[in-house]
Write a structure and sequence with these properties.
Blueprint lengths: L6 H10 L3 E2 L2 H8 L8 E8 L5 H11 L8 E4 L9 E4 L9 E5 L6 H13 L9 E9 L9 E9 L5 H11 L25 H14 L3 H15 L2 H12 L18 E9 H11 L3 H19 L9 E7 L12 E7 L7 H22 L1 H7 L5 H13 L12 E6 L7 E2 L2 E9 L9 E7 L2 E9 L6 H26 L13 H13 L2 H5 L3 E7 L4 E7 L6 E5 L6 E6 H8 L5 H6 L3 E5 L1 H15 L2
Parallel strand pairs: 5-6, 9-11, 11-14, 16-19
Antiparallel strand pairs: 1-4, 2-7, 2-13, 3-4, 6-7, 8-15, 9-10, 12-13, 14-15, 16-17, 17-18, 19-20
Helix pairs in contact: 1-6, 2-13, 7-12, 8-11, 9-14, 10-11, 10-14
Length: 613
């Protein structure tokens, strides 16, 4: 007699939720995968001093329980009727994901770059957990790196993480101090995987999701429409129309052809303090400066190849929509399109142009809300999207229309202090990113310990000389710095050191009057907060004290590091005059909040309440 199917057990498995479905946005990285375009991210980490591979393996093994997806693989729904699910891999073996090798002679930077390119060019096995690590020993001939140091090349599929969550993974794998720890086998937690769900369970899970939310597509559209209304879209749509009907359409460049399987990459390292000083002098964001530096290098590279279009190139600039306290390991990004001003010869004029473009881009995203934009991807059935991607690639449909953008430029803030790996100092971190047909150039800026590495990833066909382009990035940064400093000297002639007056004093005077009137806010936002106002050559510090019966707002000579708002004078004045929004300045990195989560929230809410009075 045939055994009966226990529907109760199947239902229990479905509703327990031991397996989680990927989002529509994450699925895009799956169906973009092709033989010439593996969709993984990589980091090259150089660790100072000789390190034992067995010790490294124990470190990774002891951290695996903190990164669940590292022992999970994707399981597809039958006939690809829905997005795949993350499930525990019952056959997980750490040795299949760790690789040990020695750098070939000469063991210098060029050899390491070639080896990393080969590793990065190879796709991950989609039947297993989507990551791998190469432990490269014998770095002997890189200047300022001790002989015998090691390099660690890690690859993680983009369906698992984005740039911000990748930084979170570093926080798990690496240490914040230089203590040497001996890891005992008892510290390595035993892996007890959940059983694999069968096809019926997957279909029931997907069916339940549809029954629970049958109007997913109309709801996403409705949410989008509501977001438009709430944010006075009629006004902002004029900005979108202006961008859509700009004089210059997106040009076709050498970066928008088919890519080859072999990856190329190069990197330029800049001082964060120097970049930050320039940011303060000209009143732009760090991101604006990085875009301008990259735009200068792109313009020179294309000019020398006699391939520079008359129209400005357009960059896709990913924006993190991750919440401040969100430490989840998944993709939470939206995208902004920015014209790079590559048609402008003068670097300072190009920087001003880029700043205007990023302001327009932020306004467009503010209209709908980045999370609403991200939800739209979930409204596309996986099977249809997968089929569309295959047809698009197979028949080169990209050749029938202009590209949506020419280059991707991403900026990921990394750890500000030194990291260690079991007592060994992490010297440098470089990020490599995936390219695909039609999108053969991506530039990733990553900050770590006072340095910004700007790493260019391409392929042998599109940009065989990445190292040349990286040199142009360094030279573009030096040229921009020289021009900015020169322009500031002209504005402030020697011998004329008149004291600069703060425009934003009006903000604090009005805040003082507001708190005197709204006494109930003193208890609600109780605490001491400091504001550092940057005026270029000078600065002012203000203290907002809400710990007594009567609030005080006054200038001070000392800053309490527990809760500080750092902002430029012109931006605070524009905020006061309602020409800019608080959230807009925060997204654009034009203000910085430091302190405890609770105090940062209270100060933010206090300022917003004052501005909307």
């Amino acid at each position: 007699m045939a055994s009966k199917i226990d529907l109760k057990d199947i239902a229990q498995e479905v509703f327990d939720g031991n397996f989680k479905q990927i989002s529509g946005y994450e699925a895009a990285f799956l169906y973009a995968e092709s033989p010439t375009s593996p969709m993984h991210i990589a980091t090259l980490v150089i660790v100072e001093g000789s390190m034992n591979f067995k010790d490294f393996k124990r470190i990774v093994a002891s951290k695996l329980h903190l990164i669940p997806k590292f022992r999970q693989r994707l399981l597809h729904v039958p006939m690809d009727l829905d997005y795949p699910y993350w499930v525990d891999d019952p056959n997980f073996e750490l040795d299949l994901h760790l690789n040990r090798m020695k750098l070939a002679d000469p063991s210098n930077w060029e050899s390491l770059r070639r080896t990393t390119s080969r590793i990065f060019s190879a796709p991950l096995d989609l039947r297993r957990p989507l990551w791998s690590i190469h432990f490269i020993e014998g770095i002997d001939e890189i200047p300022q790196i001790p002989k015998g140091s090691v390099a660690i090349v890690s690859k993680v599929h983009h369906v698992m993480i984005d740039g911000s969550s990748g930084v979170g993974l570093m926080g798990i794998l690496f240490d914040k101090d230089d203590k040497v720890r001996t890891i005992d086998k008892s510290e390595i937690k035993k892996y007890d995987p959940n059983p694999l769900p069968d096809d019926i369970s997957l279909l029931l899970k997907s069916g339940y999701g549809f029954l629970k939310n049958p109007l997913r597509i109309p709801k996403t559209i409705a949410d989008t429409a509501i977001a438009f209304v709430k944010n006075k879209a009629s006004k902002t749509l004029s900005i979108q129309k202006e961008f859509a009907t700009a004089r210059y359409p997106v040009p076709i460049t050498i970066f928008n052809g088919n890519v080859s399987p072999r990856r190329t990459w190069g990197t330029a390292i800049l001082s964060f303090d120097r970049v930050n000083s320039l940011r303060k002098l000209v009143g732009v964001s760090i991101n604006d400066l990085i875009l301008a530096v990259c735009a200068g290098a792109i313009r020179r590279y294309l000019q020398e190849k006699e391939k520079l279009p008359l129209q400005p190139l357009v960059a896709n600039v990913p924006i993190s929509i991750r919440g401040e306290n969100d430490d989840s390991q998944n993709n939470q990004i939206a995208n902004m399109l920015v014209q790079l001003g590559t048609h402008i010869e003068d670097p300072l004029e190009r920087l001003e142009y880029i700043q205007e473009q990023t302001m327009l881009g932020k306004a467009r995203h503010k209209t709908m809300g980045a999370k609403t934009l991200a939800k739209i991807a979930d409204a596309v059935p996986f099977g249809l999207a997968n089929l569309a991607a295959r047809i698009y690639g197979k028949y080169n449909i990209k050749d029938l229309h202009r590209p949506p953008f020419n280059v991707t430029i991403t900026n990921v803030p990394g750890p500000t202090k030194l990291l260690y790996l079991n007592g060994h100092k992490v010297v440098s971190i470089f990020g490599l990113t995936p390219v695909a047909n039609g999108f053969g150039l991506i530039i990733a800026a990553f900050s770590y310990n006072g340095k910004i590495s700007i790493t260019t990833t391409s392929d042998k066909r599109t940009m065989p000389d990445c190292y040349v382009f990286s040199r142009y990035i360094r030279e573009s940064a030096n040229e921009l710095e020289e021009l900015i400093l020169g322009s500031q000297k002209k504005k402030s002639p020697a011998g004329k050191s008149a004291k600069q007056k703060s425009e934003s004093t009006a903000f604090f005077n009005a805040l003082r009057r507001y708190l005197k009137k709204e006494t109930g806010l003193i208890k609600k936002y109780q605490g001491v907060y400091h504001v550092h106002v940057d005026m270029g050559a000078t600065s002012e510090c203000w203290e907002i004290d809400l710990t007594k019966e009567a609030a005080t707002v006054k200038k001070t000579t000392t800053l309490d590091p527990k809760t500080v708002l750092e902002i430029e004078d012109a931006n605070l004045y524009a905020l006061y005059k309602k020409k800019l929004l608080f959230d807009e300045l925060k997204i654009q990195q034009r203000l910085k909040l430091s302190g405890t989560v609770a105090n940062k929230r209270k100060l933010t809410n206090l300022i917003k309440a004052f501005l909307t009075r």
